[in-house]
Amino acid sequence: GSNSLFVYSNSITDTEGTEVLSVDESGNTQMDGTLTVDGGSTLTGGAGLGIAAQSGYGLYIDSSDFATHLIYADGNTARLTTGGVWTDGASWSWYKDVSAEPEGYLEKFRNMPVHEWQFKDEEIDGLNRYTSDQFTHVSPFLDDFNAIFGIGVTDGIDAKDWIGVTMVGLKELDQEFLALSATVQQLLNSTNTSEVVVVDNPDLDVQTLVVQQAATFYGTILVQGEAGFISKVVFNEDIEIKGKIYASNDQAGTIVIPANTTSTEVVFNTPYQVAPKVIANLVDDEDEETFVNWKIIRKTEAGFTVLLQTAVDSDLTFDWIALPVKLASEPPVIDSFVTSLSTVGPDIPVELWAQVTDTDSESTELTYTWELEPNIGTIDGDSGLVYWTVPVSEQPAFDTEVNITVTVSDGVSNISESSIVTVIVGETALIVLGCTDDTALNFDSEATEEDGTCTYLIVGCTDPVALNYNSEATEDDGSCTFQTIIVLGCTDSTAINFSAEATEDDGSCEYEIIESFVLGCIDPTANNYNSEATQDDGSCVYPEAVVLGCTDNTAINFDAEATEDNGSCQYSIAGCMDTTADNFDATATEDDGSCVFPEPIVLGCTDVTAINFSTEATEDDGSCQYSIAGCMDPTADNFDATATEDDGSCTFPEPLVLGCMDPTADNFDTTATEDDGSCDYGIALGNILELINKGRLS
To answer: Which of 15, 180, 228, 624 has the most Cβ atoms closer than 10 angstroms to its Cβ?
Structure first.
C-alpha cells in the first residue's frame, strides 16, 4: 500500500501462515517469496537498503531477468549484470522520436537567406526593443529558418537548433573536403608517365580530361567553352585573332602627370624578362597654342618614366602601350654533366644529370636527347635527369666502355656533352647513391657512392627580387636590399581606393561614410582579424607568444615556460663561488667548499706616533692623526684651527673703552682706547686759537 510498513516482530507471514520475511537476533533480514513495494512507497530497515521509486523512473528487480541482471532501471536501459558490470543508460532514450542523423543540411545552408538587420525604433506590443538593443545583427529570419529546415519553435530560433544544424552542415562539408582531398591525392600519386595522344574523333565524349604529362593533339582543336592557361603558351606559327585582345595593366594603361610636375613613373606589377618597347600618346591635346615636349626615359624590365621638358600648370594625361620583344636566342649552356657511377654492373641504375642554364628560355622549353654508343641498356626519362640501366640480358661479353651523350636544344640552338661509363661484366655489388660528404647538409651515412647531390650551407639573400639576390644561398641572412620605387597613390588603408602598391601618398584617398558598424576583431595581429569589422567586440585571439629561454631540462637554468631555445642554457660547474676567496672561480655554478681566504685585513692607523694609533690595524687607511700644539681658543688673536693641543699661547685684544682721547680736551680720558667724539673744550681765546690751528674750529 501507500503507507509505511514497520517490522516490529521477528517475522511476517502470508495469509497461509508461511513465513516470508524474518529478522534474526543480529538484525539480519531473510525474505522468501516476492516483496513488492508500490510506487511512492519506501522500504526501510535500519542501516539496510532503502529503495525509493518516483513516477516514470522506477528502479526494480526484474524476476524474469535474474539470470543476467541484478538491477534493471526501466526507461533508459541502465542495468547491473550478475557479473557486477554496470551499464549507463543512453541519454537519447529519454527523448521521443529519436531518428537517424539528418542529411542534406549543407545544401539547405546554401539556400538560406542571411540578413543584416536592426530592431525598428517603434513600439510593438507595448515594447520598443530598439531602445535597449540598437546594434546591428546578422542572422536568418525565423520564417526562412523554419521553412528550410522544418525544425524548431514558431516564436524564435532555439540555440540548440542553431548548434545542431551547424554541426550537421560542418560534418557534411568535412565529408566533401575529405572526398575531394582523396581525389587530389589519387591524381598526385598517379604513376602514369606515358604520353597522352588524343585523336580527332567526333564521337569521343569526354566529360573531364586530365593530362598529367605531355599531350599531342592531331588535327583541329575546337574549344567551345572558356579556356585558361596557367603557364606560358608558345605559338610557333602566326596567330589570327577575330575577336578583341584585352591586355593586362602591365601592357597598357593611362597615367597622369600632375600640374607643375615634370614626370610620372610607371611600375609593372610583374617585371618583364626584357625591357619592353614603350609608346605613349598625349590624350585630349586640344590646345593649339601650347606645345609640350616629352619623352620616355628609364625603360627597364620593371617599368618606365614619362618626362616633360617643362612643367605646365595643368594635369597631362598619357595613354601608353608596352610590348616586349624577345631578343635573338642565346644557346643553352651545359654547366655540368654528372654520372653517379663511373663503373657499373648489370641491373644497377646509373643517374645521368645534365645541369643546364639558358638566359632566354624557360626550363620547360628545353628538350633533351640521350644517346648511347654502343647502344646497350635503356634510359628512363627525357629530361635533364634520367636513369640508365643495363639489364643482365644485354650485358656485354667483356668489360665495355659506353659513351653517353646528351644533346640540349632550345628550339634554335643545340649543345652536346659526353661522358664514359664502363660496364663491368658480372659486377653486382650493391651501390647506394647519395651524398658522401659529411660536411654537407644532406650527408647520407648509408651512401656508398657520391651522386653529386650534396648541398651546403650558404648564407646570403634568398629573395629573387632583391638587388643582392644570391641564387646559391641556402639560408637567408637578412641582408637583402631592394630598389626603392616611388609609386603615387592612396596609402591610407582605411580609404576605399587604398593602393597597397603606392609608396607615396598623392592626396587621392577617398573614404566611405559608414552608416552602420560591424562587430569583430579589428587587430591585424590577431589570428581572427576581420578586415570588414568597424568596431572591436573583444573577440581577438592571438598566437601564442614566443618565450625565449633554455629548453634543455638538464641545464640548471631550464625554463619550463620557454617555447624557443635562445642558447642561454647553463650547466653545473663545481668550484669556489665566493668572490672574496683567493681561488674564486667565475665560471663555477655550484660551490664545492674549496674556497681559500686570505688573512683578514683590519684597516686603521698603523703609526705609533699618531694619537689614534690602532694596535689591531693590519693595513693603514690614512686616518692617522697627530698632536699639534697651539692656541685652540677661537676668540684669541692667534687661534690655530689645526691645533689639537692648547699650549697656553693665546693672546687676546685689549678691551674697548670709549671716551675722549684728545689730551687738550677738558674731558681727556687716559683709559679710552677709542675716541667717541665726546671731547669738551673751554672758550678761552687761546684755546679757540689752538683749536683753529688744529683744524677743529673754523
So the answer is: 624
Q: Which residue type does 228 have?
A: G
The set of cell numbers assigned to 539 is: 573577440
* Nearest C-alpha neighbor of 354 from the set 390, 389, 381, 378: 381
pTM beyond cutoff 0.85? no
Query: What is the CA angle 179-181-186, rounded to 5?
Result: 95
Q: Per residue in 16-44, pLDDT tens?
A: 666 656 666 655 566 555 555 554 444 44
Mind listing the pLDDT tens digit for each residue in 344-370? Answer: 888 889 999 999 988 777 888 889 999
Distance set, CA 187 to CA 122, 177, 191, 195, 213 (Å): 60, 15, 9, 16, 12
Judge whether 426 and 347 are in contact, CB under 8 Å: no
Residue 519's nearest CA partner among 506, 531, 536 is 536
Burial class (CB in 10 A: 0-12, 13-18, 19+), 162: middle
Burial class (CB in 10 A: 0-12, 13-18, 19+), 578: middle
Residues 86 and 443: their CA atoms lie apart, in Å, by: 59
Find out whether 496 and 503 touch, Cβ atoms under 8 Å: no
| Sequential DSSP letters for 636-674 | STTB-TT-SEE-S----PPPP-EEB--TTSTTB-TT-SE
Q: Tell whether the torsion through CA atoms of 360, 363, 365 and 369 is positive or negative.
A: positive
The answer on pLDDT for 86 being more than 90 is no
Q: Retrieve residue 638's grid coordinates.
A: 692667534
Chain centre distance of CA 550:
21
Report how far residue 626's alpha carbon sits from residue 645's, in angstroms, rounded to the nearest whole number.
10
Largest CA distance in the chain: 179
